[in-house]
Amino acid sequence: MLPFPRVSIIGLGLIGSSVARAVKANMPDVRITGYDADPAVRDRAREIGLCDDVTDLPGTAVMDAGLVILCVPVGAMGAVAHEMRADLPADAIISDVGSCKQSVAEALAEALPGAVIIPAHPVAGTEKSGPDAGFATLFKGRWCILTPPVDAPEVAVEALKSFWQRLGADIEIMDARHHDLVLAITSHLPHLIAYTIVGTADELGEVTQSEVIKYSAGGFRDFTRIAASDPVMWRDVFLNNKEAVLEMLQRFSEDLTALQRAIRYGKGDELETLFNRTRDIRRSIVEQGQDDDAPDFGRRH
Ligand code: NAP
């Protein structure tokens, strides 16, 4: 049995459009209604047939939904929930795909008192944005972390779990604060570091710009992929997961200082020990199916 015969997707960018495509591919009988604040995105979604229906108001999109998934930047979750509040069916489950969970849980609980809210985060994405960037297999073999509040009805959690499993995801249940701490180190800090490195290189630009681009295959270009990620989405992630990111940043700065000292005092053994450990981490990621083993990220040479 389908966990939800009618699904509303609010925000039709990379993640929203991927959910729509994955639902169509895996549950063709589910009726999808979509909404996006951007009229150009709505037009494009209609043009490419992303949903069965795309509405011009958020309320109209959710009127008969069993599941509503908010796929907007995390800073916009509360406002968009507020906009649809009057039209939400009493038995609808409200979920989202935001990259941080505690602030979203709080914003949704405040905007929709009494509603069944089960925040979620599919740990899958790319550096692209918009309705054309999505694809149906984005969630296949990736983790989707659900962070239900303690009083969430078990049957609702099970239905959402089953929904994401049908899209190909593996499910993990986690406390929202723990999620934010884990993701601060696995996702948020790497993005911050990439933004910093690319920004620093850009500031050196006047002297070295042509060299920076020309020799980017030395490592720099791998950071530029991450640093090309959506500016609004990432602005919101850092502002909404402030404490966890600052804590991880503090630890990172201490480790960087230790590395700086090892280089200054010629402690090659310390460097080598660390680099061996990090190589093992890469190996584990490949072994656990979270990346493939193609050299140089599978680029053609
Ligand atoms: P995206 O491609 O930029 O799409 C977001 C869409 O939401 C845009 O079309 C945007 O319209 C629209 N929007 C913004 N505010 C809105 C509002 N108040 N009401 C309705 N629509 C609104 O971004 P995305 O990558 O799909 O990210 C969406 C969510 O997924 C974020 O919460 C992000 O943290 C989470 N997420 C992202 C990734 C990733 O890798 N990208 C991975 C996992 C989770 P505009 O054109 O006006 O901006």
Bound molecules: NADP nicotinamide-adenine-dinucleotide phosphate
Number of strands: 9
Q: Helix/strand/pairing class, anyone?
A: alpha/beta
**What top-tier CATH class of the largest domain fits best?**
Alpha Beta
Report Rg: 21 Å
Q: Mean pLDDT across all residues, rounded?
A: 95
Please state how the strands of the largest beta sheet are arranged side by side. Answer: 3-2-1-4-5-6
Annotate the secondary structure layout.
Blueprint: E1 6-10, H1 14-26, E2 31-35, H2 39-47, E3 53-54, H3 58-62, E4 67-70, H4 77-84, E5 93-96, H5 102-111, E6 116-117, E7 120-122, E8 143-146, H6 154-166, E9 170-173, H7 176-203, H8 205-214, H9 220-227, H10 231-240, H11 242-264, H12 268-287
Parallel strand pairs: 1-2, 1-4, 2-3, 4-5, 5-6, 8-9
Antiparallel strand pairs: 7-8
Summary keywords:
301 residues, alpha/beta, Rossmann fold, 6-phosphogluconate dehydrogenase C-terminal fold, six-stranded parallel sheet, 52% helix, binds NADP nicotinamide-adenine-dinucleotide phosphate
How would you characterize the overall build of this protein?
By secondary structure, this protein is an alpha/beta fold. The model has no long low-confidence stretch (mean pLDDT 95). The longest helix has 28 residues. It folds into two domains: 169 residues, 3-Layer(aba) Sandwich (Rossmann fold); 113 residues, 6-phosphogluconate dehydrogenase C-terminal like domain (6-phosphogluconate dehydrogenase C-terminal fold, Orthogonal Bundle), CATH 1.10.3660. α4 runs parallel beside α5 and α7 packs across α11. The N and C termini lie far apart (47 Å). The strands form two sheets. Strands 3-2-1-4-5-6 form a six-stranded parallel beta sheet, sandwiched between helices. It has a three-stranded mixed beta sheet with strand order 7-8-9, covered by helices on one side. The chain contains twelve helices and nine strands. The structure holds NADP nicotinamide-adenine-dinucleotide phosphate (NAP). NADP nicotinamide-adenine-dinucleotide phosphate binds next to α1, α4 and α10.
